[in-house]
Amino acid sequence: MKKGIWAVLWLLAAQVWAADMPGKADADNERIRAMVKEVLREYASNLGPKHLNADTKAVMQNIGQDNRTFMRTHKANYFKPFVDGQHPRATVITCADSRVHAHAFDASPDNDLFVVRNIGNQISTAEGSVEYGVDHLHTPVLLIVGHSACGAIKAASADFSQESGPIKNELSSIQIPKGEGGIGSVVLNVHNQVKYAMAKFEEKVISGELTIIGAVYDFRDDLKQGQGKLAIINVNGETDPKKLAQLEVVQATEQASARSRRPY
Ligand SMILES: [Zn+2]
What pTM was estimated for this model as a whole? Predict the structure, then answer.
């Protein structure tokens, strides 16, 4: 503990030193940053048991336990198909929200879904990852999934000027009307993301190599199609519900089929 106090004092002294010398050269600033990092590392390594938050302990116990169960119940045969490489069938962009997970629409997402997650299920804030799935892993489907009660949508529809720079950056690319943070804006954001993807992957869509699908995972039944429904609201830019219902891809999704899960 004593060591920890000295570490904090040292950290404060380093900050004061930095503040006193605004004209410092970049190399000096870099040296200060490295020193501060070293202090924090030293401080963290000396933290005693009192610093272990009860919630941290509980969550890590659960994670460890669940991983041990997973290892016990999944043997070499399970991993065999993908130990040497991945072959996903869809690139999926979802919100990072903890209530949204791929198991709601894929019982075995391992080696099947290349999932990119961020606040507001956006392409522009994770563009490289999305490109990797579509252009390098050649998934035939790009599925963009919004969800009911999305905090990012709510935040983007309000004043978020007090947020930190990185959060502001990720919220500012969500183009929805102010004051409208409900399901209507969730749907609008999905349409906007599909539009963005259409422009980005235009050639692949035209050639039929890629289908871009916009959907809403509705765990609150806001769209009145059933709680937990993955409602398809956009296919390659088509948003008219009547026309969507006639599309083969939508009909295939709606069919409760017992066909093989891997037709490709
Ligand atoms: Zn969300």
Answer: 0.82
Structural domain 86-254, CATH architecture: 3-Layer(aba) Sandwich (3.40)
Q: Which of 230, 236, 219, 237 is nearest to 253 (CA)?
A: 230
Q: What angle do CA 231, 232, 235 make, to 5 degrees?
A: 170
HEC sequence for 80-121: HHHCCCCCCCEEEEEECCCCCCHHHCCCCCCCCEEEEEECCC
How many A from CA of 30 to the centre of ligand 1? 37
Q: How far is ligand 1, taken at its centre, from the CA of residue 177, in Å?
A: 17
The domains of the chain are located at 2-51, 86-254
Please state, in angstroms and rounded to a whole number, the distance separating the CA atoms of residues 90 and 6.
Answer: 52
Centre of ligand 1 to C-alpha 121, Å, is: 7
32-51 pLDDT, tens per residue?
Answer: 889 988 888 888 777 776 77
Q: How far apart are alpha carbons 143 and 117 in whole angstroms?
A: 12
